[in-house]
Amino acid sequence: MLTLQLILQGVFLFTLSTLLLGWLLPKIYTLLLCAIHSLAKAKHEKDDLELYESKKKEHREKSQTQYDSLASEYNQRILIPRQEEKRRKKEEDFIKFLGPAWKGKGSPLGGQVFDDENHCDSAGQEAARRRIVREDINLDVLAAAASNAAKKKKIKHVITLPDEPSADEPDAISVLFRTPLGTTFQRRFLNSDKVQCLCDLITTKGFSYKSYIISTSYPRVLLSDPNVTLLELKFGKRILLNIEEKDA
């Protein structure tokens, strides 16, 4: 009887162990598969990240090299000749300034002239008597000079760019600018805006309208009138404009 109980207990324990093992094995197998898949995925993501960083670094170095090349070309082609021209003009002005002073004989500007040498007590008094300018002549000269200065005085232009319209604005025009450096930038304007707004924009980008001018690509037309509106130019919804250096 005792032997039978032991046998039954052994069979029960064996059956229970078999059931537990059969239940645990799929779980363990699934966990192992998940762990292996996670490790493989992490390694793959790491490799992708390293590849991305490598390509990003390569692209950055290539872009920097191109920018340095364009900057060097612009410096050699435009900046250095411009500086040489300014230096040459300064040297010419300096040489003119150091040239011989005018030492010709003066003539009276107007007024009374004394020719009687008996009235000359000294060289200074003689010079004063030989050139006595009437006060009314001085006043006329001052008035004329003030008038000319007022006419020549220019009002300083203050750059005030209009607000950029949204892309959904029906009257908006998208303008793409191409600079002499080969770079581009873009901004939207209303068709009621004038060419002066475009000139102000390129000035804020470092291309002063005094030295640069805007032109269309094809057919090439110079936008020389700042008071013309974009609607009058019939640009449409999108236009490419070039920024060119003015001829000296």
Summarize the structure.
The chain is an alpha+beta fold and 248 residues long.
Please give the share of residues in helix.
Answer: 40-55%
What is the strand arrangement across the widest sheet? 2-1-4-3
Question: Which structural class is indicated by helix and strand composition?
Answer: alpha+beta
Number of helices: 5
Largest sheet, strands/sense/barrel: 4 strands, mixed
Q: Would you write up a description of this structure?
A:
- The structure is a single chain.
- This protein is an alpha+beta fold.
- The chain contains five helices and four strands.
- It has a four-stranded mixed beta sheet, with helices on one face.
- The longest helix is centred in the N-terminal third of the chain and has 96 residues, at 2-97.
- The model is unreliable at 110-114 (pLDDT under 50).
Which key features would you list for this structure?
248 residues, alpha+beta, 5 helices, 4 strands, 55% helix, membrane
Fold blueprint:
Elements: H1 2-97, H2 123-130, H3 135-152, E1 172-178, E2 184-190, H4 195-204, E3 212-216, H5 230-233, E4 238-245
Parallel strand pairs: 1-4
Antiparallel strand pairs: 1-2, 3-4
